[in-house]
Design brief:
Elements (H helix, E strand, L loop, with lengths): L9 H10 L6 H11 L3 E5 L6 H14 L9 E6 L3 H14 L7 E4 L5 H8 L3 E6 L1 H9 L10 E4 L2 H6 L3 H10 L5 E6 L4 H10 L3 E5 L10 E7 L5 H11 L5 E4 L3 H13 L4 E4 L5 H12 L5 E4 L1 H4 L9 E4 L6 H8 L9 E7 L4 H11 L1 E2 L1 E4 L95 E2 L12
Helix pairs in contact: 2-3, 3-4, 6-8, 14-15
The structure holds adenosine monophosphate (AMP).
The site of adenosine monophosphate has 15 residues, from helix 3.
Amino acid sequence: MSFKELGLSEPILRSLEELKHKEPSEIQEQAIPIILAGKNLMAAAQTGTGKTGSFVLPILEMLQERAKPYGKNVHALVLTPTRELAAQVRESVNTYGKFTSITSTAVFGGAKIFPQKSKLKKGVDVLVATPGRLLDLVNQKAVKLDQVQILVLDEADHMLDMGFINDIKKIISMTPPVRQNLLFSATFSPEIKKLAQSLGDELVEISAQAPNTTVTKIKQVIYHVDKNKKGDLLAHMIEDEQWAQALVFSRTKHGCEKISNHLNAAGIQTGTIHGDKTQGARTKALREFKEGDVRILVATDVAARGIDISNLPFVVNFDMPTYPNDYIHRIGRTGRAGQEGTAISLMSVDEHKFLRGIEGLLKIKIDQTSHEAFKPTDKPSAGGGDSRSRNPRGRNPAFSRNNRSSDSKSGNSFSKPGGSSSRPSGAGRPGGSGAGRPGGSGAGRPSGSNAGRPSGNSAGNPGGNKKTGSKAKTRWKKT
Ligand code: AMP
């Protein structure tokens, strides 16, 4: 089916043509007709599948036909969990709506409120907002929500994770009772379903891909490694495999800076995005990364949500994510728009418990390996190993059963970049002379690998991770 057949008109088709979006993605094909028919929608949409277009395109179409908002009013309100996502959705409204007269703006915290207020003075067709800043603006009477006709909750699961439920309820109560409601979430939980049902009647439920699954084109690999060798292993892989770019996730803000410093010391250029950075610094880091001026972006979960970077080949979990849903969102930053990508997770012996949650949620087994030059030697702490840790190729005897080690709170630990104890055997300083290759040619590659890739039975076969029958288990953040 074409975009035209979905009911989109000339000005929007023109921008799609300019963007070279030849045909609708699966979620767009499903969602656009439902939204154009004015129905309430709850969509399970994977990140990177064209989710934004699936609501922005029909909203633009519908608002073209309607009267313009005036006097601080808004006709379509999109709520997002993060500033980056708000900015990105707004950019999509601008790009897709380039040949329409639709007006839009984005408001979020961390940026000056005065310019946001002045943009809202005349009213806008589409307002994209994070909940906290929107409430500030409402309280300061800078915006009115009583003419909202369409309400979108984007990445609703994140909004609940981040503790926005009360803000969302407050905002909803300020909008008219009769409105169209659209809820998008990569993962579904009973809480999300409850929220969706509270929005309005006759909710149409769609799913472009089964919820709680990862994009199938992403190759996923777990590397067993000692905690204090993670920095060296990462630097080694980046240089040895000549990664063009990678997004590295850290559990903590402090960890972000440590990883960044470690890579810098290895001669690898980085940027960081986390909650301690000003909005200006976050925007700059993201822009530089998107433009290819920065090779490695190190980020925390909150700051990196919703980031859309095309052609991102690698995502690295420097720390295993504590919450299984974060794993889905993190690795969904690669493999976007039908492209292939690799998600590498560095797992120390104390982190096996997190893998159990992830594999349980995804109902797959993720390939595991270790790097020849960074074989783990740490033993599980007293109390034993993890009952689910696997070793498909008979490696890593250190990973015994029943690991209940609980070091999850400790941040990242590093050996010094130049420290001999952390070096791959025979390796020079990562990023140093010798063509910038630590470990020299082929040194430190996973044994039996092809081009530095693990040789697990589905490695190199995107989406080839094995299904399991284990029950999905989701833990929700209480933040
Ligand atoms: P999203 O899931 O909305 O974040 O979109 C992910 C990426 O896919 C963005 O870079 C979009 O520009 C791109 N995209 C969205 N829809 C299409 C389409 N129909 N054809 C090709 N690319 C698309």
